[in-house]
Amino acid sequence: MFGYRWFWPGTESPIEFAGARTCATCHQREYILWAGSHHKLAMQPAADATVLGDFNGASLTYNGVTTKFFRRRGEFMVYTDGPAGAMNEYRIEYTFGVAPLQQYLIRMPGGRLQAFGIAWDSRPRAQGGQRWFHLYADRRIAAGDPLHWTGPDQNWNFMCADCHSTNLRKNYDFRTRTYATAYAEINVACEACHGPGSRHVAWARGSRRGGAGSKGLMIALDERRNENWRIDPASGNARRGVPRLSSREIQMCARCHSRRSQIHEDYVHGQPLGDDYRPALLDADLYYADGQIKAEDYEYGSFIQSRMYHAGVTCSDCHEPHSLRLRADGDRVCFQCHAAAKYASPAHHLHKPDSAGARCVECHMPATVYMTVDARRDHSIRIPRPDLSVSLGVPNACNKCHTGRPAQWAADAVRRWYGHVPQGFQRFAQALNAGAIGAPGAGKLLDQVISARDQPAIARASALVRLGALDAASTLTAARAAAAAGEAMLRRAAATALIGADPNLCAPILSPLLRDPVREVRVEAAQALAGAPAEIVIGGAAALRGATGDYAAVQELNADRPEAHLNLALLFTQEKEFGKAQSQLRDALSLEPTFAPAAVNLADLYRGLGRDREGERVLREAIARAPRQAPLQHALALLLIREGRKPEALQHLASALSIDPGDSRIAYVYAIALDDDGQRSAAIDVLRADLERHPFDREALAALAALYGRSGAPDRGLIYAKRLKELVPDDPQVGELVSELAQEAAPRRH
């Protein structure tokens, strides 16, 4: 394993990774602190000193497979089901992590390392640990499933390695489908954060050259220098003496401590996070509407929502960066900035002293358990809002402890304590929730969040993306302002919100973003303008070509994933390069034969080329491999409808809806097909069931209003038409529908 070289700006002198042992010669204290940390133990060769699990004949049965753990000639072995389901022996190559669980990596052909799906619970036995457990105990994962330990979603090279080693290079060769993954150091060592250190070593040894004041370092992690937090006796809260003028340290930590995708591999320490990674927004499948963690979101997306972040707090204000331990035990880490006399008092926390409810983190940083045993605290550091649990269904800290009580009980208690409902710093939950479900007034609420400069950029960006799915006219106005914002996250959201919009309308807004200094913004703008005529782009073909090249490079970096080939196929389709699009979709299916989006898009490409027969073959082959994929059943049904084979199409639509009852689009198509087949009553039943799940689905409301009108029940249709008009009050077609149904229903009322 080896590292790459950088060159210091303006010189021919390479900058190389020196290694943690070299750093230790001068920085002994920091090295000792790091030596016992989770960063140091992030990945290690399997050995007696590193393996924590029981390999002395232990076994675990999961999904009908009994896995055995044993030793042979000093090596750690497992006997388990392999890629095709057959039982075999595999050698443990590396340990992965250390607490509260330890995973194990197994080498497979093609340079792959795979994370084994059964992990060791390294907690003490008294806490339920010292046992083997399956990471997906609540599911039935078998060979062939992407989540099986041999599958793509457990591949170390793509999924894990970048954050567990220093200066990682994936080195994937799509032609041979092999990896030659390399790193400078196996774990998260000094230079993972400080950058390659050879110039700093030279400076320390006497050259004293390498950048004014930089000491040869590529990044200055000095945001706490001269920092002085002083607690105001009146408020009990601290104010930073020297304003934090950058977020270098936070963005450095975010490289790994965030939910993100990698878009560039040649990382240069100190450049913006968005040059190399695309951090997730508050997407509904990742975060709750109020911004609390839902999926495995890590810390960055939460922390940048917090009042603490906006007050100038950095990661290392709370965490010692080498040992990773808190700078003080328990609540004392909070009392660095919040007066204990005020906040440790029952008058503040309203719980018995020394009880769990009296601890700061239990109320303000509640934990969610991931990977079965790994409790992680939400770093948005918010006040408990049980009232939002009542109105929006989000979790709250009160009911995390008082599990036997309803959320209304907790909301009533909070109102009784304070005489009102405390709002807190984050005030975007109602808007993001309304935007996610398309509720009446959602556009106005989202607009208010987007323009609220006192709200977190990640929330404003998320609101803009939601607005883009609801209201085209308002989106243009909001995107125009966001495209000029100082935060890259907002500029990126401006492009995301306009994907699929009329290029003639959005080109003036997006053209400057094609040359944005931050890569994630350029890439998103290129996607939004893909296929647009060069003459409407400010800067012309060169600007669009450059950003599109960045977009293509992102997909090529991730060519070991089918999603990357799908993205290239969509790009080529928009550019009318249909042969290239077909090739990329075939490549996606060759990587993951059960990847439904590739099969659906390939069939759709064939449809556009007048080759539906080939499209049908693609879909039937895909269904044979993955019969429980609703999009495949739906796509085949649409093809059969086009060919007039309605009875068979209805069967596949029924299958699709039974697989995914929550898919509104499938429900709508199925209802229209049923009505076409003379089964109007059944069609109405399908739409009503869909509206039970999605009360603001516009297609279902319009279809139900029309179907009831045709059924001789205009009064019932009028109910749904009026609900639709609440959602789109300015839509003239909806206004006409309401008028027609009202006129038809009027004689019946008399």
Describe this structure in words.
- This protein is α+β, with helices and mostly antiparallel strands and 750 residues long.
- Among the domains are: 43-164, no CATH class; 237-383, no CATH class; 427-560.
- The chain contains 35 helices and 19 strands.
- The relative contact order is 0.05.
Alpha-carbon distance between the two ends: 85 Å
- Cα-atom Rg, whole angstroms? 28 Å
The overall average pLDDT, rounded, is 95
Query: Spans with pLDDT under 50 lasting ≥5 residues?
Result: 1-10
What summary fits the major beta sheet?
Answer: 9 strands, antiparallel
Strand content: 5-15%
Give the helix proportion (percent range).
40-55%
Structural class: alpha+beta
Tally of contiguous helical segments: 35
Shape summary: globular
Give a count of the beta strands, DSSP E runs of length 2 or more. 19
Q: Could you give a short description of this structure?
A:
With 750 residues, the chain is of the alpha+beta class. The longest helix has 18 residues, at 540-557.
Key descriptive features of the protein:
single chain; 750 residues; alpha+beta; nine-stranded antiparallel beta sheet; two-stranded antiparallel sheet
Topology (elements, then pairings):
Blueprint: E1 6-7, E2 14-15, H1 20-24, H2 28-35, E3 43-45, E4 58-62, E5 65-72, E6 75-81, E7 87-96, E8 101-108, E9 112-115, E10 118-121, E11 131-134, H3 156-159, H4 161-164, E12 172-173, E13 178-179, H5 190-194, H6 198-207, E14 229-231, E15 238-240, H7 248-254, E16 260-262, E17 277-279, H8 300-303, H9 307-311, H10 315-318, H11 340-343, H12 346-349, H13 360-364, E18 367-370, E19 374-377, H14 386-392, H15 397-401, H16 407-418, H17 429-437, H18 442-450, H19 457-468, H20 472-482, H21 488-497, H22 503-510, H23 519-528, H24 540-557, H25 562-574, H26 578-591, H27 596-608, H28 612-625, H29 630-642, H30 646-659, H31 664-676, H32 680-693, H33 698-710, H34 714-727, H35 732-749
Antiparallel strand pairs: 1-2, 3-7, 4-5, 5-6, 6-7, 7-8, 8-9, 8-10, 10-11, 12-13, 14-15, 16-17, 18-19
Helix pairs in contact: 14-16, 17-18, 17-19, 18-19, 19-20, 19-21, 20-21, 21-23, 23-24, 24-25, 25-26, 25-27, 26-27, 27-28, 27-29, 28-29, 29-30, 30-31, 31-32, 31-33, 32-33, 33-34, 33-35, 34-35
